[in-house]
Design brief:
six-stranded mixed sheet; seven-stranded mixed sheet; single chain; Nitrilase/N-carbamoyl-D-aminoacid amidohydrolase; globular; 6 helices; alpha+beta; 17 strands
């Protein structure tokens, strides 16, 4: 199965971001991708975190969800919609949600980010809990590929990457491919991004695809980028450092079976 990790440098203008995403998704489809993954906050990286509240949508309707559904249907593409702000239970919070659309334009899965990023090194300060409500449930979905394999995919977002128990739970459920749409900061990405992603692939003997924000945004935020795809042996299949782009990779279900047979570590768990 050919997959595409879409790298963006989103702005504070929703319409511009949807146009940017649409162009990159068309490129992915034209190059034969069956699945395309957008990055976290693909629809908006604004001047303030509260900007997410202004564009929030109720689950099931709204211009961002309509864009994802229409684009999936038009391109005949599975689309994992990075994240978008969905209305939460608290009026001053939103969920940071990943929605999955099949080639018919139907939303078939939803995951609300469970771990909320907080970082303060005296220069950079982030606290997602100020505007986000934490999700509570891991989510997986099935993708019947053109290659005949029914891929099982596990959803996660950015800061989730630092919590291996989430991915171990997915491995126990038989997940083949882990998705990690992200907007890692340049500081934390430079230190930990690739090593964490490769570790999640190696320890769970699963493919990993991570679509990232990658560049300097109008609000001054600098995201790390390096969207990439990794095989179950921890080898990087494809990547892009910075800027807009489509990172394409072939994921072979036979390789997955072979690696898990050669090294049955998932069967040797004691806990």
């Amino acid at each position: 199965m050919k997959i595409a990790a879409i790298q963006m440098v989103s702005t504070g203008t929703l319409a511009d971001n949807l146009q940017q995403a649409g162009t990159l998704l068309k490129q992915a489809a034209a190059q034969g991708a069956e699945l395309a993954v957008l990055p976290e906050y693909f629809c908006l990286i604004g001047q303030h975190d509260a900007g997410k509240l202004a564009i929030q949508e109720p689950y099931g309707k709204g211009p961002i969800q309509q864009f994802l559904a229409d684009t999936a249907r038009t391109l005949g593409l599975w689309i994992v919609g990075g994240t978008l702000p969905l209305t939460a239970t608290q009026p001053d919070r939103v969920f940071n949600s990943t929605l999955v659309f099949n080639p018919k334009g139907d939303c078939v899965a939803r995951y609300d980010k469970m771990h909320l990023f907080r970082f303060d090194n005296g220069v950079e300060r982030y606290d997602e809990s100020r505007v986000l409500e934490r999700g509570a449930t891991p989510t997986r979905f099935e993708l019947p590929s053109r290659d005949g394999h029914r891929w099982l995919l596990g959803l996660s977002v950015c800061y989730d990457l630092r919590f291996p128990e989430l991915y171990r739970a997915y491995a126990q459920q038989g997940v083949d491919l882990i998705l990690v749409p992200s907007a890692f900061t340049h500081t934390t990405g430079q230190a930990h991004w690739e090593v964490l992603l490769r570790a999640r692939a190696i320890e769970n003997l699963a493919f990993v695809a991570a679509a990232a924000q990658g560049g300097v945004h109008p609000n001054g935020r600098h995201t790390w980028g390096q969207s990439l795809a990794i095989d179950p042996w921890g080898q990087v299949l494809a990547e892009q450092a910075q800027g807009l782009g489509v990172v394409l990779a072939e994921m072979d279900a036979a390789q997955l079976v072979q690696r898990r047979s050669q090294l049955p570590a998932l069967d040797h768990r004691l806990l």
